[in-house]
Queue: 4 jobs
Job 1
Amino acid sequence: MTQEITLSQGREYLAIPGPSVVPDAVLRAMHRASPNIYAGELIEITRSLIPDLKRVARTEGRAAIYIANGHGAWEAALSNVVAEGDRVLVLATGRFGIGWGEMATGLGAEVELLDFGKQATWNLDQVAELLRADREHGIKAVLATHVDTSSSVRNDIAGLRALLDAEGHPALLMADCIASMGCDRFEMDEWGVDIAVTASQKGLMTPPGLSFVFFNERAAEARARMKRVSRYWDWTPRGDPQEFYQYFGGTAPTHHLYGLSAALDLIHAEGVEHVWARHQRLAEAIWAACEAWGQEGPLALNVADRTLRSHAVTALRIGSPHGTALRDWVTAHVGLTLGIGLGMAPPGDPAWHGFFRMGHMGHVNAHMVLGMLGGVEAGLAALGIPHGTGGVAAAAKVIAGARQAL
């Protein structure tokens, strides 16, 4: 009797676009008894986190920490500068751009959505036309997603700021950097971003549960004009706390803070610029493999233009039912978990099974990426999905050239 052998035993690899792989140093930092929240080490660690976070965001502005996921960061940012009835412009290139707009609608804002689909960036000419028509400057904020985790489209935040300036429009520029911060180059101050949001579970390599809002003086002035802001979401005491509890609106997220401190130490020991370069080179290796596989068969990168692709997540199209079949196979036989094709087809539509994503953010190195690609290549072969040859070899060639390029 022949028994099928699975090779999934051992440490699993969660190659989804968040939560990302948590470094051992972060896990060790979190594995401790509950600390004192009124005095001692935790207070000093928290104070050190603020400048370390701002170094990653590349800002001299202020930072607020929330016990929340990325959706909480969305709501926190909106709650401080957008009142009921205010107009906001949302630029969407995937499900998460649309989601931030839905959050604004839920808070009573009047939302104007420009949806550019799931495979392309913004059309800035179209954005300029809309801003030009807003002669009374009724649009209070522009909500822009730097990298949409669902589509893997990476958008030009600096170009959007240049457009706002050229049109003389005073709207606040708000950037969702949840999938990009600590992975793709992001320069909050240099690019003229007024408010940036991110969360702990992706490039910051810490378990889900913390989110962050960075804001500059223009945003602080907009907050000062608000008639009221929810006491919990108000960033004023968090950004300039007089008492320790004000950092968090109550009890501190104790163990997350230890983990975050260790994660930021890793980032700064490597250097933020090298972190960006590492993510870019590993992403290019993944693209090379996918392009080789796509020479024959149905596999295709969701974003055709390399300059518009995220360096943290890669969305792929492979046709139904191959996406789900491939994810299921690599989980069962390789110990590898790939991301679902989030928002690429309506729920219940069989086409939903034709997409998947590779997460390559945070604590990721060359051998992890090569292992992931090897697992995918094995899955394509095992399932009889037509594909070109030499995917892993193409990726290895890109990685082999890393020394010369850096």
Note: Residues 3 and 333 are 13 Å apart (CA to CA).
Job 2
Amino acid sequence: MKKSIALISLGCAKNLVNSEQMLYLLDEAGYALSPDPEGCDAVIINTCGFIDAAKSEAIDTILQMAELKAASKLGKIIVTGCLPERYRDDIRAELPEIDAILGVGSFADIVSALDEAFAGNIVEYFGDKNAPVDELPRVVSTGPSWAYLKIAEGCDNFCAFCAIPYIRGRYRSRSMTNILEEARSLAEHGVKELIVIAQDITKYGTDLYGKRSLAELCSKLSEIDGIEWIRLHYTYPDQFDDELIDEIASNDKIVKYLDIPIQHINDGILRAMNRHGTSDDIRQLFKDLRQRIPGLVLRTSIIAGLPGEGEAEFEELCEFLREAKIERAGVFPFSPEEGTRAAKMEHVDFETAQRRAELIMQLQSEIMEEFCRSQVGKTLRVLCEGYDEEQKMFFGRSYADSPDIDGLVFFDGAGCEGNIVDVKITAITDECFLVGEEV
């Protein structure tokens, strides 16, 4: 009888791709995959270890699985990813219920690790996190019509507040040949939208080809039959060039949506956090992008309470956001991460950072509502993702909406999951979702 395995994937989209690769390897090895850990022979928890909230979620999940194990409702517990990579010297002592731990360089070893764990061995795999990216097949778990496409691993930016380079290793681009081969396979399986991801996609190719190659990659991705949307996530403001902007503006398959994390706008804070470029550079970039890419929707990430942020610096940030009218934003209170330079710098207490984050979110909610109201009366292309029985309507996403982090469009019509349809927007909901009719 096949041993049953459940996999719990925590953290970011980049981590989810690694989970999908492990699912493929497990299936190929003959394990039975289960959505529910209870009653399984083993559970794999692919963790995030980036900030305190993510670490707490990972530890809480491990402890919940440990309770099932203690009640003889679960066999082995395997923990993979960022948490064991970051705390490899402590995790087993702190969480002795774990049977196997694998770092970020060992996702390809998941079958061997499971086999050893079932044999009763204590397992610790920590492969080279700076090695070339493993080219592994995957089981796409996001749905029939869209998928993430990870084009690089690691990060060389070394922002003062961020532990990612220490956890995930140096920046390594995948070869364009391998990326395009994966994209063609996804298209053959019905994927219409590719969401291009990495810690920094604008740096793609600099290590492998000696130059920024994202524009060339996007051009070649757009030639693949079946791919209709290409969405770009995690583009850094200092890495844009005219070639990339022109490609985004002229390529109809690249949705006019850019995720550009700026974190802050004050020059002193940007310097202290080792962010490349200045406040003026960011303002000019946003101005250029708006002018050259009509209808552009911007997403960014903001950290409130960074070292050096007093009331004046916070007000400068708020004033910039009022002016820039960034349509989408993720806002986070500063979390001092051990091992980073920012953790040793003077900063406001967490309660103050949290209050400032909430004020920014209020400001951004007004900007988002204004944007949503501007869409009423327009006809948008919408990728249908299903039917909502409660609303009695189809739902999907427009070019302005990335999955899981942005809004939805609800509409009447023929719909059909996986299709891209035209929807005339007639109203917005209290949650700033769009409502319309298929035309």
Note: The chain has a mean pLDDT of 95.
Job 3
Amino acid sequence: MPRPRTPAYAAKALDIEVAEVHSPEGFSAFIRFPLKLYAQDANYVSPILVERREFLDSRRNPFFEHAQVAFFLARRGEHIVGRIAAGIDERYNRFHKTNTGFVGLFECIQEVGVAAALFERAGGWIKAHGAVEMLGPLSMAFHHECGLLVHGFEHPHSMYTPYNPPYYEQLFEANHFRKVKDLYSYEFSAKQGFPQKARQAAQRARQSKGIHLRRLRLEQLEVEKDSIKSIYDSMLKPGFGLLPLTQAEFDYAMHRLRPLIMARPELCFVVEADGEPVAFALSMPDAQNALRSAKGYLSRFGIPWGLLKILWGVHKLERVRVFLFGIRPGFRRRGLDALLAEETVEAAQKQGYCLGELGWIAQDDALLGRTVQFLGAKPIKTFRVFSRAV
């Protein structure tokens, strides 16, 4: 029987040098490259560069306690033309019983050969660390930004979701990445109101014995945080993508979200059954429009222009982002999802928000997909996860 042929990957551009980042100057260039790449893209919203630096700092982000990550820059002469990160998450591989590396933080000019050089270098690093395939793009993990935007470019770039030019899909496919799964993002419209059938389900849940809905208790946020993590962990099982977070990772994630929670605590709810938290929904202002005018900087030349623009823009926000949502097993199909959704929509309306985005939901999670559509949401974006052998 003939041996299977090794795929003929796209030829890398011969004038491109891809080098691992080791110096502070190189790391700064890695973080700043998207500002140049997206300079003419009106849809792109740059994250705050200081926040990106902290997020990618192995001394500050607890993700690095169980993961190894390398960062690479592609140069043509003196000009940076692409970047990529490669990593191995040991906890992910143990939980899912896989031998996988990831690629992410991918940015590249519109040249297949440049992308080929980046993928070859990242794949070589992953193979040298013992993995047999690379999965991505991920901003290091599935609970960070994940997937490649392939549908829904006409919709706003929301917080903590990927954004990329349409040509990225071609760069991945030309380099023999295959689709693993699509992830969908959904939109709620407060203007359309809450569907009557969903409202009836929420009312039945509200009248159920022992069920009580309340707002998140800011004065007991540490206790609330532990309850939310317990519910979140109870929902996870080996399958696609997610895994239980370490306590340090969960604390770090909540630390990043805390300013948004404090800005609009009216959008965060917990459901109790006989006094015990069993479900939650944490929604926050989607601050992308406020961040847009800062263009990545809180201050320039010692003057906090970016921060002032953000503070001014916060008053004009129209969208809400549903960041975390969960129901403990044993309490599903009891209308708690409808109860949380109804309260969130009504609270958003009272605060003047007109739209909300929720995601991601995997394409084969039919039950959850049907549920959010029953609650009045419509799919608006598709994020695709790819893989390739190394």
Note: Confidence is low (pLDDT under 50) at residues 1-7.
Job 4
Amino acid sequence: MSKFIGCIIICIGVLINSSALGQDDPAAIDEGSITRVGTTAAQFLKLGVGARAISLGGAYVAEANDMSAVYWNPAGFARLTGRHLQLSNTQYLADVNYNFAAFGTSIDRFGSIGLSLLMVDSGDMAVRTEAQPEGTGEQFNTLSFALQVSYARNLSSQFSLGANIKLIQEQIWHSKASAIAFDIGTLFTTPFSSLRLGASMSNIGPKLRMEGRDILFSEDPSPNTVGTAEIVNAQYRTDGFSMPLIFRVGLAWDAINNGTHRIVLMTDATHPNDNAEYVNAGAEYTFRDLISFRAGYRNLFEPDTEQGITAGGSLMIRINRDLATRFDYAYADFGRLTQTHWFTFNLSF
């Protein structure tokens, strides 16, 4: 019980700290008159990964038990044994290509280590100007990625801790912004063994600032004066924008788990630094660890959200005792922005 109380204290401490960080942001001073939406960079870090987690409405911080755990709660990565590979793809809104790949392995007495890549690619688009609105003949694209190394360890049979260090980069045409960030997470199996408590904080790092030759220009500082320097090389001064800091705390409960049937109920509360708090919820039914059906709801209580119902399922194919594959699918509704379809392949060996 003392470990359970300790975990609660840690979660409360992190929540208080994240709230303090949000108050330091000028955009969060007067929530009644100033919105925080659009005040952070690297928005792709908020999209989520893994079809299973998406179909559960993103309520995954206390259930994270596949390679997508390195995104939702790196502590869940410690609960995996053996080696695991996950590949995920979705054609996101506006035909943006969104991919996630992760590999991890457990090492006796050391813990689990992993490597993952999250990447968003807009594809090529035409360069348009006021003088040439139909296009100049040039092409540009936007590319964002996060390359991260993960480490997690079971400190006891009930308590796990995990962390990520990651390189984040956003690029548009010839300009880019880069930074190093961190994630941390905890996962605790309560004295009621069917109930798990998880908490994580993601994207702890410095501000991102765009740099590159697209912001360079040449200017005559005194066009009406003769005898001065005609051309001065200069650059636009760009602002730095904070990371999308996200604090999650959640519960997962095995309502039924008798070897044949398993029903899990999950809920998360999320506190971002660039929007209002919201709640995710999800439920999963699994038959003999072979086939699963899932449903969830995302961003409940968030003002003006277009996100909502999610659903999906999976099929497990066990080739032998040590080799198994799982195929996951998720559907996510985005209201007036239509919907997205998520596909994930998992390999355990």
Note: The first helix runs from residue 2 to 24.
